[in-house]
């Protein structure tokens, strides 16, 4: 049965809890006022890191702060940001060939720099605003387990290094001889490492929201926006309709990530919801297990990889499990069901630490919780940021694909400059491929789908 588009694209109620959301937080269901204000300068839709980072920069050092209402369909930060792996892992080398092919080597180099700069941008924010969110700077270790894959990564690393167009000063390559001992991962065939960070993403967002409420932000949980229409009463304004009443606003910021096409159907082709899986692994308290000082990407082959962060309490968060379900399109592609688990992935993380890490064989580490979450995958892997084409006063910050933590904060800063000061996209300094355009929305090519097609076809043959 064809789902009604308007129902299909709103987040589903009652998502399964993640490790980060399980313990109730005081702002989960926050409503700053009992009723909705009927007017605001700006309405931001979506309370993940994108919406909240944008609100932060709209209000930061602003002598004439606009009135802002933040609408959230479910609990505050209950979308991807509240359900992710907590890894602030810039891609400083692995996707360079892919992005160079799509956008040119200069753009690929710019993207790598932009992501790397985020580790320090998030660090500065956390420090300056004193947000308690378990933030730690670390090295990310990408460990390659398949010999041919490891060889091709070494060749790529060497050629990108030799070309000298991309800054690899923070990126080191370690070959098979030392890879297992240095990484601690069994059978490692190669290792690439660089600076990254990990944190409790929901605490970062809630910490910021708390500060912003102090600056006048009106927060409304459990209030889905149902449509955005031209206001009949006030030329140049927009009417945001909700079941709790309507708000008229001069500007609207769509920070709804995977769900963006519910209110902006022109993004239906370019941003697709994709379901991801994460888990929390812990051992008995009395057991003194080794501590992992690094974060990890475990790369099984060119398609399958997991990502892992150590928690300061000795437990581990691991995400991925693609091998278990990425060949089954319906289980994740265009799927917004974060109220259920992916059954194919339910046992994927069993004995994970024991299987892959040296010295963890007797750790008794067990999966304590597993969950799903919905990512917004962009057809060309780039987020859409900027003025929504042909809708003056409406802006978008969405489509962060596999990882948003090393991109969102500075995108929020750039978007706030556009909305607040009328700065052009080009003047924000954001990477050019991020600019939202009609051409991208209408593109006939879809590199994302093309890359997945082979997996789906192989499954169809079985
Ligand atoms: C399982 C999983 C693991 C991940 N791991 C990592 C990781 O380790 N590192 C990393 O960098 N990235 C990771 N990601 C991706 C990362 O979480 C996202 O890129 C990022 O959180 C996107 O933030 P956002 O604010 O744009 O979207 P979201 O956090 O999804 O926020 C969008 C919000 O909009 C709300 N909303 C939608 N429609 C409406 C509406 N009509 N009205 C009102 N509200 C609405 C939603 O409820 C949601 O709260 C992971 C994602 C998942 C799901």
TrEMBL record:
Give the coiled coil ranges: none
Q: Outline the extent of the FAD dependent oxidoreductase domain.
A: 41-417
Q: Which InterPro entries match?
A: FAD-dep_OxRdtase, FAD/NAD-bd_sf
Any one Pfam family here would be DAO
Q: Name one GO cellular component term.
A: cytoplasm
User: Under what name is this protein listed?
Assistant: FAD dependent oxidoreductase domain-containing protein
List the lineage, top down. Eukaryota, Fungi, Dikarya, Ascomycota, Pezizomycotina
């Amino acid at each position: 049965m064809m789902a009604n588009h308007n129902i299909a694209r709103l987040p589903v109620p009652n998502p399964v809890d993640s490790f980060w959301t399980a313990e109730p937080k005081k702002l989960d269901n926050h409503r700053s006022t009992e009723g909705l204000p009927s007017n605001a300068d700006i309405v931001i839709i979506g309370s993940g890191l994108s919406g909240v980072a944008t609100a932060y920069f709209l209000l930061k050092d602003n002598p004439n702060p606009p009135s802002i209402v933040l609408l959230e369909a479910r609990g505050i930060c209950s979308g991807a940001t509240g359900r992710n792996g907590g890894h602030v892992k810039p891609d400083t080398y692995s996707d360079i060939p892919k992005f160079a092919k799509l956008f040119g080597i200069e753009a690929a180099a710019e993207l790598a720099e932009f992501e790397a700069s985020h580790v320090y941008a998030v660090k500065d924010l956390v420090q300056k605003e004193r947000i308690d969110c378990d933030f730690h700077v670390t090295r990310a270790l990408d460990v390659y387990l398949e010999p041919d894959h490891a060889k091709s990564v070494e060749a790529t690393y060497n050629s990108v290094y030799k070309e000298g167009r991309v800054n690899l000063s923070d990126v080191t390559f370690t070959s098979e001889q030392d890879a297992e001992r240095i990484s601690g991962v069994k059978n490692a065939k190669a290792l690439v490492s660089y600076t990254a960070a990990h944190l409790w993403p929901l605490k970062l967002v809630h910490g910021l929201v708390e500060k912003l409420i102090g600056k006048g932000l009106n927060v409304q949980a459990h209030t889905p926006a149902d449509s955005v229409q031209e206001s009949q009463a006030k030329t140049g304004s927009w009417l945001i309709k909700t079941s709790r009443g309507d708000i008229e606003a001069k500007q609207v910021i769509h920070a709804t990530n995977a769900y963006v096409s519910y209110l902006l159907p022109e993004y239906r082709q370019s941003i697709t919801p994709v379901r991801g899986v994460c888990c929390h692994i812990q051992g008995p308290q009395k057991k003194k297990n080794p501590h992992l000082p690094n974060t990890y990407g475990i790369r099984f082959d060119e398609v399958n990889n997991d990502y892992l962060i150590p928690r300061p309490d000795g437990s581990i968060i691991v995400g991925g499990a693609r091998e278990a379900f990425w060949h089954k399109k319906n289980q994740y592609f265009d799927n917004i069901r974060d109220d259920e688990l992916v059954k194919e992935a339910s046992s994927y993380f069993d004995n994970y630490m024991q299987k892959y890490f040296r010295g963890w064989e007797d750790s008794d580490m067990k999966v304590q919780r597993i969950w799903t979450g919905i990512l917004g995958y962009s057809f060309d892997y780039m987020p859409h940021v900027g003025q929504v084409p042909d809708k003056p006063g409406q802006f978008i910050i969405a489509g962060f694909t596999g990882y948003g933590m090393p991109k969102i904060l500075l995108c929020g800063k750039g978007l706030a400059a556009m909305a607040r000061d009328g700065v052009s996209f080009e003047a924000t300094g954001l990477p050019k491929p991020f600019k939202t355009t009609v051409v991208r929305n209408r593109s006939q090519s879809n590199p994302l789908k093309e890359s997945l097609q082979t997996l789906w076809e192989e499954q169809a043959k079985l």
